[in-house]
Specification:
heterodimer, A: alpha/beta, Aspartate Aminotransferase, domain 1, Aspartate Aminotransferase, domain 2, 2 domains, four-stranded antiparallel β-sheet, 14 helices, 19 strands, B: alpha+beta, Sufe protein. Chain: A, four-stranded mixed β-sheet, 4 strands, 40% helix, binds pyridoxal-5'-phosphate
Chain lengths: 418, 157
């Protein structure tokens, strides 16, 4: 950790120290205003600890991993494998073999769809997803259904944007051969009751993949306690670099799966007569991996652990409650996604102002939000809207950010007033 | 980029009264049942979609035009202004307008003698907002596709 973050800053709320100075990107002016970054659900900003870990590695330790006897290769391997150990303990995986580095959540889901599901699915089998999934937890399953003749079934959500859990549980039966479900919805913020759902899935021996992209940056995650078979996450949404993510899989499941891609690193022995695959986790990491990405992700995990996920969760839920209450005070606001259990994001519409116009006006006031369908078109269709404006929080946001958001929304209202 | 005041001006340049008026009350909005030509425009970045309908007579004059779809203030106002502009023009001169508008929005100083931008000049506020230029061009790309009777949707990418 850098010296900035050691400096004691004023406490914000909930006992979380002010972490803003750990994030160099937050310290800038945009369009003449100090930046208010409310788009961490799309991609979060890295702290100095991550930036310097990656830079240090690039400057002093870079070499290929697992294949050299020289010192730099040894250092690179140690750092890369050290990141795996950190990830293992961060999500409480049983062994380090259960941590597969991928490009991100999207690649992790595709890996499971192609390596786990595709070889075993047959016509009549079902894959169950929910109506609130991100496209990356929909399309890979549509593809594998097309390839195998299995059927994609969708569990419904209600008007608050929460899962109709009873209906999902009623959809579970012997035909379902995979349940793929978000931990937290990126468009709505709804937190799904995974413990209850997964224990019901167990009754029919249904494998469960959890899309954790929007959960890991915001709350403690324990994959053994969840008892999911697979858990996917992205580094860049948890203060790490882009192009790196993790597939967690139970060892027994991963062991039984064929490799997904072939190449170097994933083999023990190759001859033209045949190839012996490497052991876990290397079996699923063909080719030179994203070494610096993994190191950056490891540093991000270290940073999060130094603060504590429980504290982060408490801080963010306080800011989220404040944000929802402040937004709700604005005349003409419509909050999309008001589940009882929510994390970090709020989608909304204001009067009949198109979200892109809101986005432009807010950007002009230095406030960065996301607008559009958020890669969750079925959610937009559920609410009969083309898109929303979405403000999303991370550990570095505070009440002032929310105030700047609402002020800027009032400017938008003024510009568009009839 | 420094003081806040001129920035506010830029916003007002983008959302001029004329633009807001057309966004709120788009002209010639809806399907044209007896259209001879039609085309769709898609902005894949934001998912905005609109359709432009034209009624082109045998002499090449556009006797009626309309559009439908949903979009931001800029794309709706641009489409609305487009319909007002092209009704009564020949397809050739409508295409000159397409060229002139796309050039103006790209910030090119091209003043074709036969094209008077007139109120279309109000669209030029987007030039200070690079991420919004495509919103303003969408309808014009669709118009171009409709005149050429393209079956493929026109895209801004
Ligand atoms: C819930 C959810 N799942 C999956 C993804 C895809 O993540 P990535 O693009 O990093 O693979 C995202 C992010 O866009 C997300 O929010």
């Amino acid at each position: 950790m850098n010296e900035h973050s050691q400096k004691l800053a004023k406490p914000v709320t909930s006992g979380l120290r002010d972490c803003r100075s750990d994030f160099p990107a937050l310290d800038q002016e945009v369009n003449g205003h100090s930046l208010v970054y409310l788009d961490s659900a799309a991609s979060s900003q890295p702290p100095s600890a991550v930036i310097s870990a990656v830079a240090e590695y690039q400057a002093h330790d870079h070499a290929n991993v697992h294949r050299g006897v020289h010192t730099l290769s040894h250092r690179a391997t140690e750092a890369y494998e050290g990141a795996r150990d950190r990830a293992q303990s961060f999500i409480n995986a049983n062994t380090r073999n259960e941590i597969i580095f991928t490009r991100g959540t999207t690649e992790a889901v595709n890996l499971v769809a192609q390596s786990f599901s595709r070889p075993t699915l047959k016509p009549g089998d079902r894959i169950l997803i929910t109506h609130m999934e991100h496209h990356s937890n929909i399309v890979p399953w549509q593809q594998v259904c097309e390839q195998t003749g299995a059927e994609l079934v969708v569990a419904p959500i209600d008007g608050k944007g929460q899962l109709k859990t009873d209906e999902l549980i009623a959809q579970l039966d012997e035909r379902v051969r995979m349940l793929a479900i978000a931990h937290v919805s990126n468009a709505l913020g709804s937190i799904n009751p995974l413990r209850e759902i997964i224990s019901n899935a167990r009754r029919f021996d249904i494998p469960v993949l959890v899309d954790g992209a929007q959960a890991v940056p915001h709350m403690p995650v324990d994959v053994q306690e969840l008892d999911c078979d697979f858990y996917a996450l992205s580094g860049h949404k948890m203060f790490g670099p882009t192009g790196i993510g993790i597939l967690y899989g139970k060892e027994a499941k991963l062991d039984a799966m064929p490799p997904w891609q072939g190449g170097g690193d994933m083999i023990l022995e190759v001859s033209f007569a045949g190839t012996t695959y490497n052991e876990l986790p290397y079996k699923f990491e063909a080719g030179t991996p994203n070494i610096s990405g993994a190191i950056g992700l490891g540093a991000a995990i270290g940073y999060l652990e130094s603060i504590g996920m429980a504290l982060i969760e408490r801080h963010e839920s306080e800011i989220l409650a404040y944000m929802m209450a402040e937004l709700d005070k604005i005349d003409g606001i419509r909050l999309i996604g008001t589940a009882d259990k929510k994390a970090s994001v709020q989608s909304f519409l204001l009067d009949d102002i198109h979200p892109h116009d809101l986005g432009t006006i807010l950007d002009h006031k230095g406030v960065a939000i996301r607008t559009g369908h958020h890669c969750a078109m079925p959610v937009m269709e559920h609410f009969s809207i083309p898109g929303t404006a979405r403000a999303s929080l991370a550990l570095y946001n505070n009440r002032d950010d929310v105030d700047r958001l609402t002020e800027a929304l009032l400017v938008a209202k003024k510009i568009f007033k009839k | 980029m420094t003081a806040a005041a001129p920035l506010q001006e830029e916003l007002r340049e983008l959302y001029r009264d004329l633009i807001l008026d057309h966004a709120r009350s788009p002209r010639h909005f809806g399907k044209l049942d007896d259209a001879s030509n039609r085309a769709e425009g898609i902005n894949p970045l934001c998912g905005d979609k609109l359709k432009v309908y034209l009624k082109i007579k045998d002499d090449g004059v556009i006797s009626d035009a309309s559009f439908e779809g949903s979009g931001c203030a800029i794309s709706v106002a641009s489409a609305s202004l487009l319909t007002e502009t092209v009704i009564g023009l020949t397809t050739d001169s409508a295409l000159s307008y397409v060229d002139a508008v796309l050039a103006a929005l790209a910030g090119q100083q091209k003043d074709p003698a036969d094209v008077q931008l007139g109120k279309l000049a109000a669209l030029q506020g987007v030039r200070e907002f690079p991420s919004r230029v495509k919103c303003a061009t969408l309808a014009w790309r669709a118009l171009n596709a409709a005149i050429h009777d393209d079956k493929q949707p026109a895209t801004t990418e």
